[in-house]
């Protein structure tokens, strides 16, 4: 009888749900509309999805466990601009680069008023890295937003659903990750077009001189080699339980720039 009383007294008005996962304002578990739960948007997974703080930390831990034990995958956070691609407004192309917009070029894409150059080896890199990492790309949008707000650019792992001990970050600007230095790999800034070329003002750009980074021994090819080493190092243990204490930060000891990157 006691039990029955307890059960019947838990009416929806005394909801004990933590409202961990809310979509378009409605809790996925109890269907209520929570108002006072602190949460963070995860629109990149489902539009309108928000996770509470508890849900974020629980999901990070769970995702890492599943990822490590079931798929043998780590997490890889890749910066986009100057790491994977270089983009430039068509109107900012130099005289010597205007040939690029005439005719089809397989490694160039026009998007709205911008021209996008993919870094050599990118396609192979993504295909191979995908086998050993869950991949995230940190887009320029976040950065421009930060600039507009006139705040210093700081990138965080808040939206990456994985434990820090299993996350590798790659960026051409290592100073934008002040809180995650030990997870961080530096890579040479990929500058294909002349516009805003800070280092090589006097030299012709790759585009002008019709050259490019090497496919087989450029930064992305060398990065892939290093990432495979990190992956091997992480999973090189005899007992499964050891995986629960492994930490990429002890392998990377970042910020670190791998050879040839
Ligand atoms: Mg960048
Ligand atoms: Zn709820």
Quick overview:
This protein is α/β, with parallel strands linked by helices.
Characterization of this structure:
The protein is an alpha/beta fold and 261 residues long. It folds into two domains: 18-60, no CATH class; 72-85 and 119-252, Rossmann fold (3-Layer(aba) Sandwich). The chain is built from seven helices and eleven strands. A four-stranded antiparallel β-sheet has the order 2-1-4-3. A four-stranded parallel β-sheet has the order 9-5-10-11. A three-stranded antiparallel β-sheet has the order 6-8-7, with no helix packed on it. Helix 3 packs parallel to helix 6 (219-235). The longest helix is centred in the N-terminal third of the chain and has 19 residues, at 53-71. It is globular, with a radius of gyration of 23 Å. The structure holds magnesium ion (MG) and zinc ion (ZN). Magnesium ion is lined by residues 79, 81-83, 171-173. Residues 79, 81-83, 171-173 line the site of magnesium ion. Its EC number is 3.1.3.16. It is found in: Nucleus.
Helix-strand layout with pairing:
Blueprint: H1 2-9, E1 21-23, E2 26-27, E3 39-41, E4 49-52, H2 53-71, E5 74-79, E6 85-89, E7 108-111, E8 114-118, H3 122-132, E9 133-138, H4 140-148, E10 167-171, E11 184-186, H5 206-209, H6 219-235, H7 248-252
Parallel strand pairs: 5-9, 5-10, 10-11
Antiparallel strand pairs: 1-2, 1-4, 3-4, 6-8, 7-8
Helix pairs in contact: 3-6
The structure holds magnesium ion (MG) and zinc ion (ZN).
């Amino acid at each position: 009888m006691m039990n029955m009383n307890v059960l019947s007294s838990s009416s929806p008005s005394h909801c004990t749900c933590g409202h961990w996962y809310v979509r378009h304002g409605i809790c996925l578990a109890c269907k209520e509309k929570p108002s006072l739960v602190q949460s963070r948007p995860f629109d990149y997974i489902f539009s309108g999805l928000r996770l509470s703080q508890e849900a974020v930390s629980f999901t990070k831990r769970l995702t890492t466990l599943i990822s490590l034990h079931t798929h043998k995958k780590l997490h890889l956070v890749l910066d986009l601009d100057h790491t994977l691609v270089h983009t430039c407004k068509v109107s900012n192309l130099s005289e010597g680069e205007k040939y690029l917009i005439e005719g089809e070029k397989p490694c160039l894409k026009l998007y709205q008023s911008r021209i996008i150059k993919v870094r050599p080896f990118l396609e192979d890199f993504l295909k191979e890295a995908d086998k050993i990492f869950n991949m995230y790309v940190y887009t320029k949008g976040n950065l421009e937003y930060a600039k507009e707000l006139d705040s210093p650019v700081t990138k965080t792992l808040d939206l990456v659903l994985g434990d820090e001990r299993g996350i590798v970050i790659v960026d051409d600007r290592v100073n934008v990750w002040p809180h995650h230095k030990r997870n961080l790999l530096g890579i040479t800034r990929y500058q294909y077009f002349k516009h805003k070329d800070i280092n090589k003002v006097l030299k012709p750009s790759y585009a002008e001189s019709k050259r490019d980074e090497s496919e087989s021994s450029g930064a992305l090819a060398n990065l892939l080699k290093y990432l495979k080493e990190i992956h091997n190092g992480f999973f090189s243990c005899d007992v499964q339980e050891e995986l629960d204490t492994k930490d990429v930060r002890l392998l990377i000891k970042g910020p670190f720039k791998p050879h040839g990157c």
